[in-house]
Amino acid sequence: MTGVPNGPWFTSLPPCETLVPCGQGRHTVRWEAGEFRLASHADLEAELVLVALGGEGARCVEIADAWRRHAADLTVLGLGPRGEADEVPVSWDDVDAAEQAARGGAGGPGRWGWLASPPRAAMARAAIRHQQYQEEAGQDSQRRLDLLSLLALGAEFQVRLSGQVAAAYADRLDEPDDYGRNVRSVLTAALDGRLAPVAEQWLGIDPNQVEVSLYRDDGWGSVELTGHGEQRRLRVSLPAWWLARVWACGLALTGRHLVVAVERAGWPDARVLALRAPGAEPVSLRAHAVSHPSGAADAPHWEI
Amino acid sequence: MDREGAETYLRLLAEAAMRGSLTPAAARAPNASTIMVVGHALTAVEALDPVTAEEILADFRLAVTVRHLHSEAGQGVTAAQWLAQGRPVLRGKPRPSPSPGEGTAGEGAPGNATPGEGADRFIPVGLTVPFLAGAVSGELCLMSFAQTGTGARFIAAWQVHSPALEVQLSHHYPGLIPFDEFTVTDDRGGRYKLDHTPGSDLAWPNMIRLNPAPPGNIRWLDVAPPYRPAVRVALSRGGPHSSDDETQVSVSDAALSAGEHLLVMLAERLLTGTPEFPRRGMLAAPPTSPRQVVAGGFGDIIAALEAADVLSPLSPVPARLATLCASLDLTGHGIAAPPTLDLPEPWLSLLAHYQRRKPEPTQMREGYAALAATLPELDGIRVTLLGLQHAQGSSVLHVLAQGPAPEPRPGPLDIDLNFPLSFWLRESGGRWHAARPDRCHQGDGESAIRLRLVPPLTRPADWVEVQAGGRSAKVRATLPLRWRYPS
Question: What was the ipTM of the complex prediction?
């Protein structure tokens, strides 16, 4: 058992790995203890520098670079899976097709050949606008390609990347992200999207009757069920860390309990704070990882 | 205003839409249209910036479509399509560039230019100038003269006859109008041309600029058609406000919240967008029509405005909107408030009009009434009424709106944020007519706007009461009308 009180969020997650088409072969990439690792590229740092300088890098090196760049990208939470039933089935063929499309759409100086002797100033302004547009479109396209490649790594990587992004912001909710997004708003929506299906499994409630908010005080938060029929509401307030420590680690619904916090992270044993029913006091339970019903070795599945 | 509440609401709505897309059987799940409509409402009240709203919608679309990369043929998208998905429509269109001559009132002027010579002046004219140019004849009907910092123009109507076709007081066929053959001279000998192409809007020859712009203190203009004597337009009346002493104006507090004001604008947009005299049961719009899409988003719009703290949960406006939707057979609006009988009088008047089984016989001849009355400022906007016109079964009110123009934010709500006022006319017969922006030409802090009256006038009223409502106040102005009819 590797249980560590107040350990990193990912301590309750097993390693996972997958094969990535790289050059003429397929290379293994691995996630372990919160890090993305390449088994087939000994000097990753040097290769990343090469990529940063504009050199042609191996695909799995580019993916490692994309992982690093998007480990704090809130867009990941919008694109990524909301739960086990929500598959995001991106294949490497999709990535290849997208890369080809991106290269084809880049355009170049030849595209301006049709401008027959326009005024010089107008041509200069148009060229600047065109260049700005190309730069923005190129950046946007590269960002989407990165995200598509990261999704192609498969469900286990998708969940871990989501956990990593949530962890990156869980303690800095008041600062906007690099794109100026309101972090609290994004994380509230991410919590809603992931908790509502869990609540449906837990209580059979319509996911649209679940109202979530980010809990910001000390403690685990609150879970309250009110009303009947169409007025029924499950009001849940949980800290942003729940997304990383609980949901990303596959602990959200364990042994018919809603896990609201991890007291002691670990793999394959962890201690969690869990609710049997809304309104009840949470109890401390020992969770043990068992084989996933799907047979996936690196998908966490827990029992009380 | 709670901007974070606004952004969070829209993101949660997108999340609910995402859930709906994953369970196609889900009844009444929000979708991209709902996100767009609510996003537009939040940007309209400035609780959310358009770029954020746009990104939320874009991210939602990316998230939905990436899950359909391997759907059956015809239902999914390819990776290349996913990559190339464009930005959605919430981003504002670029502000139109000023037309040639606009904002350069002083250029080429024969005398001192208009700017700096004092206040704007608005003069009711009410003169008809007959003309004959080759095979084309007709009348130029001058409703009013407006001179501001951006130049001088007549608000005019035209009646054009040609051997090939006859166009009565037309908005159409402006190519037949011999603008170039008119000459205009002022009391100092300055000469001007009529310029009908501000904004290159050939289909709207109601605003005719004088080129170059005349000085601000000329006393009259002689407008001379080809081969005919000139007609003199006296410019000695007028002042900073109404030039018409008979206009009665009153102002009352409105104190609407930003959310209430938006809902009123939306309600009036629904009222003016309803088809005329449908058969009973046919008021309902098709599910995909803009009216139904907007109405279908009302529940979410109201919740979003409350989340943004720009609409009180105790506001009476949502209940009025619910009544309106029920009266117009718009279903699925999702407004939680129960309907109320407490509707504004103009709404009731227009609803009564829609309930008629057949059109009312019209006693209205084609004609125009000169106006030049400036209303007290509303929410930073100063509106001057410049003419009322009835032609081809339509009635229009010409106005000039001055004040800071907001960044253009086109959106699915189809409301004109350049003219964020509730605008109604009550004619001497007692009926109310909604005035809905129909055409707008913008430039340098002012917008020339043609407001279409819904329903059109059916008899030549002796007077009209104009009721203009902003967030802060409501203005009522009663204006006598003197109708003039071209031959």
Answer: 0.89
